[in-house]
Every structure is written in C-alpha cells, then in structure tokens.
C-alpha cells in the first residue's frame, strides 16, 4: 500500500526527516512512536502534502503511484486521510456541507454518482453514532467552538465517512481523556479490515491499548531506528525513549 | 404652506445648491478615494419608462431586458408588497400589503427632504432636484414580513434619481428591502430617508447589484427618535463605480443602531462605503461591521466616522472593518474614525486586511475538496458572518446568486446548502 524510501524532508530549510524508510502493507496497522522533535508530525504532514514542507530526497509510493507528485486534494481522493493533530476552526463553513462536498469530490474522482443530501445524511448519521457525536455538532461551523476532544472525534468522524484506504493519525490521542481515547480508538478499529491500512503516530503507548498495532516503529532523529511487534510499545512505555537512543549510538 | 409647495421650494433650492457645489472632486476630503469624473463627464439623459401593457402578465409582455432583470430580482409572492421601478419610474405593484402598512409611490409630505442633506452633499442635491419617483413606506404598527422596492435600470447613458421615504411610527416594526439592478451603462443616484419614531424597530436592506458598467451613488439617511432600533444592511456587489453612504443620526435617548456592510468587487470595480454615525443623545448604542472582499484589480473603500457629541454620555460604539484581498493587485482603503467629545463613553474601532488563510485551505483540500472550490467556500464563509445574520431569506438568496455571478469560478456549486 505505502512504500516510503529514504525520505528526506523538512520545513523552512531545516531537515527533519533524514532517510526514513517504511513499508505499510494493505490491511496492516503500524504505530510510529518517538520522542518530541523526532519527525513524527513532519512525516504525517509530508504524506498529506501540507504547504511549506519540502521533500529533498527519497520517494513515497502509494498503491504504485508517486504520492509526492499529487496535489493534496488528489491524495485525499485516492484514499489517503490525515487526522490532524490540531484541527483548524473554520467559521462560516458548515460541517455537514463541507463533508458532503468532500465525499462527493471523492466520488466524482472515482466516476461514481454524487450523493444527494438525504443519502449523505443517512451515512453521516450512522457514523456519528460511532464516535458519539451529537447531531447538533454537524450543523455548526467546522470545528468552531469544539473542545479538544470534540475536534479529535470530528476527525475520526470525517475519516469514517470518507472511508480512506490509508488513514494517518497524527497524535490523535494528545489531549484526550480516557473516554474520548476509547471512542477514538473504537472509531479507528471499526475501519480496520483487510483493505484498510492505518498509520498511528503517537508519543504515548496508551492509545495502543485500545488500538492494537501489528507493527511498532521507533522514530528518532528523522529515521526509523527500531521496529518490532506490539510489545515494543509496552517496552517503550516502561523504559522511555532514552535506551533506544543509547542503543542507536552504541550501534554506530 | 402645503407639503406640495414646501417640496417645490426644497427642490428649487436643491437645484441651485447643485449648481453651486458642482460635482465632487478627490480634492475634497470626503471624496479622497473616489473620483466621480467618469460620472460627471457623461451627458446623462432620462431613461424611457417601461411601455405599459395593462392586463398582460410580465412574462408574456414584449420581452425586454428590464423585464428579465426584474424577473430575476423580483421577490413577488414573498414580499408583502413589491414596487417595481423601471428607469426610476414606478411600473408595477405586487402584493396585497398588510394591516398597519402603507406602501405607495412617493407623495409629498412633511418628512420628505427633511433629513438628507442637500445643502452640503452634491449628489443628494442632484437627487432632490431631479427625482421623479420613489416609494413611500409607512408602518403604523408591527408589520410581519417585508416590503421590497426593486429598481431596474436599462439604458445607455441614462440616469435615474430614486427617492424613498421610510417611516416607522411610534412603536411600529418594519422591514424594507431595496434592490438595485440593471443592464447597460446607466447612473443611479438614490436617496432613502428612514425615520424611526419613539420605540420603532426598522430593519433595512440595500442590495446593490447593478450592471457591471453602471454607476451607483446612494445615500441612506437614518433619523432615530427615543428608544428606537434600526438595523441597516448595505450590500455592494455590482457596478463599475459605486459610492454607498449611510448616515445615521441618533437623536433620541436610548436608541440603538446596527450598521452592516458587505462589498464584493472583482475586475476593475470601485466600491466606496462611507458611513457617519452621529451620537447626539445619551445612552445610545451603535454597532458597525463592514466587510470587503476584493479580487483582481478591484478597489474598495471603507470610510467610517463616529461622532459622539458633548451631551452623549454613556454612548457605546463599536466599529469594525475587515477586508479580504484575493489578489496581489486588489486594493482597500480603510479609514475608521472616532470623534469623541465627552469622556463617559465606551467606544472602540479597528480594521483588518488579510488574505485567505493557508491552514483552512489545506484542511479543506486534505479532505478531497479542490483548491478552487475550497477557496470559494472560504470566501463565502468570510461573507457569511454578515449574510447569515440577515433575517430576510430572499435577500440571503439574492446575495448568494450575485456572488456566484460575479465570481463563478470561485464559488461552490450549491451554495444554497451552506446553512
């Protein structure tokens, strides 16, 4: 599904990713963990095509296509979804109208007929229950006045409606209480299937209790320095990130 | 002296005043940003009235462009009463009206010409001397629903001077919508006087969507008595050169005023908004918000002045102008001004000029929405702060349609569903 090869990228001339290589197969859930400043969010933003991030070297292949050559909206239409760390508030743009426009842009891209308001609402209502969002939220402006937890649940709600092939979660667990964490994890678990891949980017292990990954990678200094199974996450939780960094230094 | 005699005296005086004042020039502070030379140099003539064909519904009448424009902007069936004027002259009345509501073509009365200043304002003098027709709207009690005054122009080097008088008697409530539209190169010079007596509530909308080759100069003059409440919306979308003035005099204690303006320009449009709020009495409140959206080489002006008089203690005034520039070459001049002559007041003002923010644009695109559509959504969102507050649904629709006509590439396909 996703092949990242020797990726070098950064922002404002500063290199943050320094030769990241990662392969995510179809149907797999990968967790990327790492200390602050290791390049986790840069990876998420580069995959979604956020402006100002520059790729200086390497490649990202998604379903056999050059992901980096696609504009942001085309990546989304091809099935890449980024659940953002800090979802922006957009006053004046209605949540449900926005999401319907998004769904129909994706459908149009795939030559499918656009959904009318009734069809769309039916799908939206179903997915709202999944993340326990009240219907009243949907008639408000995008993220406007939402609490931190509501914003994150709105991200997962959008993901559920758009049904992406590859979901990238950028620190979706940050700032969530335990209930919100469980709701978010359940939302992602509902998407899991042999057709969907998930890349969970997180600082802490706690989300992974509910959202159990197939693989765990440790990102340090812009590179994957260690990979393992779900038990690696627990080890990191107990020992912190320092021992990995020491191991890396020792191996040089 | 009868109202008719008074009026003819006023009109003679106004004609003389215009002779003395002449057309304004940018050397005058009040016209610093707007040069009306393109209007002054044309030898304007009166437009022809619509041919009357009694008994034939508009759709079947010999179809001319004024009829098409009129059909496009008509709020027939939704307004309590709609008066249609073609090239400044009364052409058609639709609707039954309502109890407590009087709507008719303009007739002389003691209020006419009393508020809009023809002594010092050349265009008001020109209007006062030359108006041929207009509307007289009076509410004696609470009127649910709204009155629509539709001014349609069609012509080549023709002008008209619409003149309206809107009167809300003590404790009455009234909503009036004025729409200006047309085809061709013409000049509309409109003056509306609004009088809100004690405790009256007036909601006024002026929607200027003139032809792209047209000139429009207009003044809305508001006079407020004790505890009255007026909301005046001024929307400028069409026109090559537009000057929209709203002047409000808060002459009674405890009155409140909301001024809201939206100007949306593209191409080489010039849209000038000037407002003066005169806080003459204590315990009055004014809240003003004007927003501009300018693309291509368009130029916008906001010149807002609030004067708080010596006797106007406990005044609350807030004035804000926000502008969105969509191109490198669009220009806006923003000049909010406060003149406070006593120290027992709460006043503030401010203005901002910005571009579309990168973050929301990325957010929308990251969900699959194309860049143009995303920009359109955000542009509409900027305007919607004002549009959503408008209580008359047909006005909201009309603005969405006008925005779509003006910036088709930028506007989302089905804007009607945004709220």
What does this structure look like?
With 252 residues, chain A is α/β, with parallel strands linked by helices. Chain A contains ten helices and twelve strands. In chain A, helix 6 runs parallel beside helix 7. Chain A starts with a strand and ends with a helix. The mean pLDDT of chain A is 92. With 419 residues, chain B is an alpha/beta fold. Chain B has a 19-stranded mixed sheet that branches. In chain B, helix 1 crosses helix 4. The interface between A and B is medium-sized, with 35 and 28 residues.
What is the 3D form of chain A?
globular
Given the helix and strand composition of chain A, which structural class is it? alpha/beta
Helix content of chain B: 10-25%
Question: Greatest chain-chain interface?
Answer: A-B, 35 and 28 residues
At CATH level 3, the topology of chain A is: Rossmann fold
Amino-to-carboxy terminus distance of chain A: 31 Å
Low-confidence stretches of chain B: 59-63, 413-419
Low-confidence stretches of chain A: none
Q: Report the count of strand segments of chain A.
A: 12
Q: What CATH architecture label of chain A applies?
A: 3-Layer(aba) Sandwich
Coarse shape of chain B: globular
Number of strand segments of chain B: 19
Largest sheet of chain A: 6 strands, mixed
CATH class of chain A: Alpha Beta
């Amino acid at each position: 599904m996703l092949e990242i090869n020797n990726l070098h990228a950064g922002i404002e001339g500063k290199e943050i990713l320094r030769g990241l290589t990662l392969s995510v197969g179809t149907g797999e859930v990968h967790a990327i963990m790492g200390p602050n400043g290791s390049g986790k969010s840069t990876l998420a933003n580069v995959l979604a095509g956020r402006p100002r991030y520059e790729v200086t070297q390497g490649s990202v292949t998604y379903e056999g296509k050059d992901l980096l050559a696609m504009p942001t909206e085309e990546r989304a239409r091809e099935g890449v979804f980024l659940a953002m760390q800090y979802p922006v508030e957009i006053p004046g743009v209605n949540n449900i109208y926005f999401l319907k426009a998004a769904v129909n842009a994706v459908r149009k891209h795939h030559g499918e007929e656009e959904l009318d308001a009734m069809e769309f609402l039916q799908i939206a209502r179903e997915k709202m229950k999944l993340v326990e969002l009240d219907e009243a939220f949907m008639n408000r402006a995008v993220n406007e006045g939402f609490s931190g937890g509501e914003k994150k649940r709105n991200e997962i709600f959008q993901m559920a409606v758009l049904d992406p092939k590859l979901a990238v979660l950028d620190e979706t667990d940050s700032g969530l209480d335990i209930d919100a964490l469980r709701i978010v994890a359940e939302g992602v678990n509902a998407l899991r299937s042999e057709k969907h891949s998930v890349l969970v980017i997180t600082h802490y292990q706690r989300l992974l209790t509910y959202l159990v990954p197939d693989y765990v990678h440790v990102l340090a200094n812009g590179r994957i320095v260690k990979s393992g199974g779900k038990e690696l996450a627990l080890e990191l939780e107990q020992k912190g990130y320092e021992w990995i960094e020491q191991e890396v230094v020792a191996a040089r | 002296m009868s109202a008719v005699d008074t009026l003819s005296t006023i009109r003679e005086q106004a004609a003389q005043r215009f002779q003395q004042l002449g057309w304004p020039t940018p050397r005058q502070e009040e016209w610093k940003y707007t040069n009306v030379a393109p209007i002054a140099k044309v030898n304007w003539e009166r437009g022809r009235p619509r041919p009357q064909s009694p008994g034939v519904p508009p759709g079947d009448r010999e179809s001319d462009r004024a009829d098409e424009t009129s059909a496009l902007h008509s709020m027939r069936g939704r307004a309590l009463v709609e008066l249609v004027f073609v090239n400044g002259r009364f052409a058609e009345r639709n609707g039954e009206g309502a109890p407590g509501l009087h709507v008719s073509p303009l007739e002389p009365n003691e209020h006419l010409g009393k508020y809009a200043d023809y002594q010092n304002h050349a265009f008001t003098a020109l209007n006062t001397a030359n108006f041929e027709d207009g509307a007289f709207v009076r509410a004696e009690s609470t009127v649910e629903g709204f009155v629509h005054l539709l001014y349609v122009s069609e012509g080549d080097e023709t002008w008209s001077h619409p003149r309206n008088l809107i009167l809300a008697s003590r404790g009455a409530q009234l909503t009036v919508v004025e729409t200006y539209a047309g085809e061709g190169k013409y000049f509309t010079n409109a003056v509306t006087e609004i009088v809100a007596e004690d405790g009256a509530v007036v909601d006024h909308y002026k929607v200027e969507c003139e032809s792209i080759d047209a000139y429009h100069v207009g003044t809305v003059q508001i006079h407020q008595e004790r505890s009255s409440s007026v909301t005046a919306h001024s929307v400028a979308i069409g026109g090559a050169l537009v000057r929209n003035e709203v002047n409000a005099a808060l002459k009674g204690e405890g009155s409140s005023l909301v001024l809201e303006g939206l100007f949306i320009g593209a191409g080489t449009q010039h849209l000038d908004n000037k407002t003066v709020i005169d806080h003459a009495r204590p315990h009055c409140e004014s809240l003003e918000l004007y927003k501009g959206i300018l693309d291509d080489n368009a130029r916008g002006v906001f010149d807002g002045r609030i004067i708080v008089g010596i006797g106007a203690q406990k005044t609350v005034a807030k004035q804000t102008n926000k502008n969105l520039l969509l191109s490198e070459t669009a220009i806006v001049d923003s000049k909010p001004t406060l003149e406070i002559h006593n120290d027992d007041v709460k006043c503030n003002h401010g203005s901002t000029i910005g571009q579309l923010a990168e973050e929301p644009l990325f957010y929308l695109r990251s969900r699959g929405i194309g860049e143009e559509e995303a920009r359109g959504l955000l542009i509409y969102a900027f305007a919607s702060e004002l549009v959503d507050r408008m209580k008359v649904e047909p006005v909201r629709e009309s603005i969405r349609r006008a925005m779509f006509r003006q910036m088709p590439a930028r506007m989302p396909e089905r804007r009607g569903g945004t709220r």
